[in-house]
């Protein structure tokens, strides 16, 4: 018997008696063979003995063709078994500052695409035990609100290799696009409206101004638009500090939520309407005289009606 390893050429090394033995021969058929040069099929089973240095599958079934009158050398192809180490790895999901980030759904798969683990992150590392040597893929299925999905990450696991891994998420940013229009003719865009934007935060269940955010103030142009850009996800408040010429000031503030539900193509669109001021005629004008005359007619008619009722 001669030994080869799977995936390699014949190495011509005879299997020593202490390394292997033939358990049984079967399927030998010499009937009908007339010439000594003809070969017959032989099936045999070999038992390999593992050593500390080399480990093979213990039982190997093989076939060969042998001359009926000759002693033939048969080749046994042995599959070498790689010794596996079981490892422990730790995976931490972080934000841009390196702080632990909760609420991300991560999945670890092996080189064959089979799922090894699936979990929801906390602000501490997730530990996976008894993981064999190999190459793995770490994938983020769902990011926490306000964060972008991280790219897939390759993890190489083995004896003496890295055991602690981090996957970072970047904060999402968006734009609030405000459009100022006439309350009754929304196609009419209004310039000259001034708005201040502040950020809000939760404090004991109430929304209060976030002092870490510096308020910004912009004025609408001819297109009636203001773009508040590069805003992190969260809640913002808009105050109209100056109305367009000829329009009433918007007295109530406007709260705008920026999150995955409201952002479309990285933009939150809002439309703000203003009511045009009522313009009264100036004293001494024709319009003023006409209004006075109409008022006197109404008063006179009312007095006559009262007198008739008394009679």
Describe this structure in words.
With about 300 residues, the chain is mainly beta. It is built from 1 helix and 21 strands. It has one helix spanning about 285-310, and strands at about 1-5, 15, 20-25, 40-50, 60-65, 75-80, 85-95, 105-110, 115-120, 125-130, 135-140, 155, 165-170, 175-180, 195-205, 205-210, 215-220, 225-230, 235-240, 255-260, 265-275. The strands form 6 sheets. Strands 15, 16, 17, 19 and 20 form a 5-stranded antiparallel sheet that branches. The radius of gyration is 43 Å and the shape is rod-shaped. The relative contact order is 0.10. The model is unreliable at about 1-40 (pLDDT under 50).
How would you describe the shape?
Answer: rod-shaped
Would you identify the regions where 5 or more consecutive residues have pLDDT less than 50?
1-38
Proportion of residues in helical segments: under 10%
**CA-based gyration radius:** 43 Å
- The first-to-last residue Cα distance is 141 Å
- Averaged pLDDT: 78
Task: Tell me the major beta sheet.
Answer: 5 strands, antiparallel
Going by helix content, strand content and strand pairing, the class is mainly beta
Helix and strand sequence: EEEEEEEEEEEEEEEEEEEEEH
